[in-house]
């Protein structure tokens, strides 16, 4: 039985991977699952680290007036493993290894030790969260957008692992820095169109495969920082964000990538549970059935309005 599920962040520097992880961790505590038997918890130092990051994020944001926004959290160094555990009816079912990476790694040369390790992680990962900078996607020139989100590099990193094995994979395209376009339907359409055009190398690759599903999830990890304007041209082109003083730090939809990721992990795990061992011990005590019922309940907490690409049936629970 597979007991350890691997998940990883994949995305360039400063797109918001660690911010997303810290806000997702905060959402984890809000998922009320006790009556359905699931319990999700951080293991080792993960809880302390992510809680600290979250506190830092909310405090700095609270203090800021209407200003330009720079780096709020320190950049991640190398590859960091965050460990989580999932229990069902007080028994541990699964270990989750969730990797956060320094975005700079994407451009590391082949002989770099970390890039080798990261490729190994990608090859094993059931869930990959590709974090994408929404402001660059919608408002940046093609040059800037590609140099920030690196769609071709992302595809090339996914390719070896995805083609080696038939393992089922979920790729979550989580768009950050897109507060401005989430306000109305027109903005949302604009964002989706920009994603489908500029992230085409990755989308085409996913749609060719029968073992991969992608889901587009735009989120508000900060909620109070908005796109302001593009300054400069060519190599000097930069994106300027401002802090809106009347808006509070209020992450939104951040529970959704988390729910998609966990539901996928649990679904894969449920398939691995089948077999004689489950038949003998679990089914006789009704535990297998209870597990499935809880899983369906949990998976129903996912918002199914997000657009999916590739093998869509992989995210269906029954
Ligand atoms: N406007 C806006 N800014 C964001 C959002 N998420 C992150 N940011 C900004 O992006 C900066 C970088 O975020 P991080 O989470 O550190 O980025 P990272 O991807 O972990 O970066 P590395 O660890 O260097 O690879 C933050 O300090 C924020 O200023 C978002 O949803 N909206
Ligand atoms: Mg980071």
Describe this entry's structure for a reader:
A hairpin with a 6-residue loop joins strand 8 (225-231) and strand 9 (238-243). It is built from eleven helices and ten strands. The protein has a single domain, classed as 3-Layer(aba) Sandwich (Rossmann fold). The protein is globular, with a radius of gyration of 20 Å. Helix 3 (113-124) packs across helix 6 (151-164). It is of the alpha/beta class and 318 residues long. An eight-stranded mixed β-sheet has the order 2-3-4-1-5-6-7-10, sandwiched between helices. Bound molecules: guanosine-5'-triphosphate and magnesium ion. Guanosine-5'-triphosphate binds next to helix 1.
Please state roughly what percent of the residues sit in beta strands, choosing from under 5%, 5-15%, 15-25%, 25-35%, 35-45% or over 45%. Answer: 15-25%
Bound molecules: guanosine-5'-triphosphate, magnesium ion
CATH-assigned fold name: Rossmann fold
Which CATH class is shown? Alpha Beta
Q: Which structural class fits the helix and strand makeup?
A: alpha/beta
Count of all domains:
1
State the shape.
globular
Order of helices and strands: EHEHEEHEHHHEHHEEEHHHE
Biggest sheet details: 8 strands, mixed
Fill in the keyword field for this structure.
alpha/beta; 318 residues; single chain; 22% strand; 11 helices; Rossmann fold; binds magnesium ion; binds guanosine-5'-triphosphate; two-stranded antiparallel sheet
Which secondary structure elements does this structure contain, and how are they paired or packed?
Blueprint: E1 4-10, H1 17-28, E2 38-42, H2 46-63, E3 79-88, E4 91-101, H3 113-124, E5 127-133, H4 134-139, H5 142-149, H6 151-164, E6 169-176, H7 185-198, H8 200-207, E7 212-218, E8 225-231, E9 238-243, H9 255-273, H10 276-283, H11 287-299, E10 308-310
Parallel strand pairs: 1-4, 1-5, 5-6, 6-7
Antiparallel strand pairs: 2-3, 3-4, 7-10, 8-9
Helix pairs in contact: 1-2, 3-6, 6-8, 9-11
This protein binds guanosine-5'-triphosphate and magnesium ion.
Residues 11, 13-19, 69, 71-73, 75-76, 102-103, 176-177, 179, 220-222, 225, 241 line the site of guanosine-5'-triphosphate.
């Amino acid at each position: 039985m597979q007991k350890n599920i691997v998940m990883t962040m994949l995305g360039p520097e400063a797109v918001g991977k660690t911010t997303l992880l810290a806000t997702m961790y905060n959402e984890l505590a809000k998922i009320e699952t006790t009556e359905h038997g699931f319990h999700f918890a951080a293991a080792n130092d993960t809880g302390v680290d992510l809680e600290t990051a979250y506190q830092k994020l909310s405090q700095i944001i609270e203090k800021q007036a209407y200003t330009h926004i720079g780096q709020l959290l320190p950049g991640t160094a190398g590859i960091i493993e965050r460990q989580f555990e999932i229990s069902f009816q007080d028994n541990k079912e699964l270990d989750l290894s969730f990797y956060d990476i320094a975005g700079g790694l994407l451009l590391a040369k082949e002989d770099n030790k970390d890039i080798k390790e990261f490729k190994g992680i990608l090859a094993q990962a059931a869930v990959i969260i590709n974090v994408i900078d929404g402001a660059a996607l919608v408002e940046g020139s093609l040059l800037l957008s590609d140099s920030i989100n690196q769609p071709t590099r992302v595809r090339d990193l996914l390719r070896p692992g995805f083609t080696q094995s038939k393992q089922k994979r979920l790729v979550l395209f989580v768009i950050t820095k897109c507060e401005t376009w989430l306000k109305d339907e027109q903005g949302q359409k604009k964002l989706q169109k920009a994603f489908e055009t500029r992230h085409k190398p990755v989308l085409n690759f996913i749609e060719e495969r029968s073992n991969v599903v992608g889901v587009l999830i735009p989120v508000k990890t900060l909620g109070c920082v908005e796109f302001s304007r593009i300054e400069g041209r060519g190599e000097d082109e930069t994106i300027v964000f401002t802090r809106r003083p009347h808006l509070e730090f209020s992450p939104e939809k951040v529970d959704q990538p988390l729910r998609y990721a966990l539901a996928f992990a649990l679904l894969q795990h449920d398939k691995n549970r089948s077999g004689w061992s489950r038949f003998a011990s679990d089914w006789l005590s009704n535990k297998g059935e209870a597990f499935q019922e809880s899983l369906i309940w949990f998976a129903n907490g996912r918002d199914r309005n997000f657009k999916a690409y590739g093998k869509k049936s992989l995210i269906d629970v029954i």
